[in-house]
Amino acid sequence: MELWEYVEVLLRWGWVIILVTALCTAAALGFATLQTPRYTSIVEIDVTPARLDLGLSQTVVNLLRNYVSSIKSESMARRVIDRLGLSDIDAASLQEQIDAEARESEFTIKIEVTDRDPVFAQRLAQATAEVFVGDVQAFAQRQDPRDRLTATMLNGGAQAAGQTWPRNKLLAFAGVGGGLGLGLLIALALEWTRVDVVQTPGDMEDRLGLPVVGNIPALGQPSRSKPGRARAKDRTGAAAG
Questions:
Q1: Neighbouring C-beta atoms of residue 49, cutoff 10 Å
Q2: Distance CA 155, CA 39 (A)
Q3: DSSP states of the chain as a string?
Q4: Distance CA 203, CA 212 (A)
Q5: How confident is the model at residue 93 (pLDDT cuts 50, 70, 90)?
Q6: How far apart are CA 1 and CA 16, in angstroms?
Q7: Is residue 182 within 8 Å of 23, Cβ to Cβ?
Q8: Average pLDDT of 75-81?
Q9: pTM
Q10: CA torsion sign, 152 to 154 to 156 to 157?
Q11: What letters, b where the CB count within 10 A reaches 16 and e where it falls short, cover 17-39?
Q12: Looking only at Cα atoms, what is the longest distance across the chain?
């Protein structure tokens, strides 16, 4: 198809594209409304070696990965439950709410805790960080002072939880983008079916490669004078002559 043909398709079926886009966007926003909000609190922990040594620094990098596994373990979740005195949540469920990531180049660990209650999410994040920092400090006391690691919570501890789901802007963007794409496909499909319909004798000749020798008029067209009336008119004219 030429460019001008695409423009004609858009002008002809633009209302379809707009309608489908509006429906998809409304569906995405409606889906977001039905979701239960979830909030995530973040706490960053700095793990610093006692001295700047290449070998010790590499050891810290390896330890960070081990620390992340420990933070995300069910054992950590159970200790957080004990620390906060929680009785209405089990360790397996809490484990799914705790996530951690090691930033090896910065010697830091980021802990994220997600919950439906933003205040409770912050409490969980703070308690998880406190348990982890306590473990690092207890282990450091048994090491040579030159090989010790220091774990410190940055930015004053766990930050206030922010909403991480649903992401209304992302869902709205997905609804608009998906609606435009779907609407365009529907418009092209409608145009394709329209082109496939034989509308003129020339279309029939192009399709079959044969000349058209006759056609049947569409219903509802004005009919010609009936033969009986024509003959009566001819006799009247002859009598007058």
A1: 18
A2: 19
A3: --HHHHHHHHHHHHHHHHHHHHHHHHHHHHHHHHSPPEEEEEEEEEEEESS--HHHHHHHHHHHHHHHHHHTSHHHHHHHHHHHT--SS-HHHHHHHEEEEEEGGGTEEEEEEEESSHHHHHHHHHHHHHHHHHHHHHHHTTS-GGG-EEEEESTTSSPPPEEEES-HHHHHHHHHHHHHHHHHHHHHHHHHHHHHS--SHHHHHHHHSS-----PPPTTSPPPPPHHHHHHHHHHHHHH-
A4: 10
A5: very high
A6: 20
A7: no
A8: 97
A9: 0.71
A10: negative
A11: beebbeebbeebeeebeeeeebb
A12: 138
Does residue 159 have a pLDDT over 90?
Answer: yes
* Both structure tokens of 141: 């006391």
Mean pLDDT, the chain, rounded, equals: 85
Extract the tokens encoding 119.
């205040």
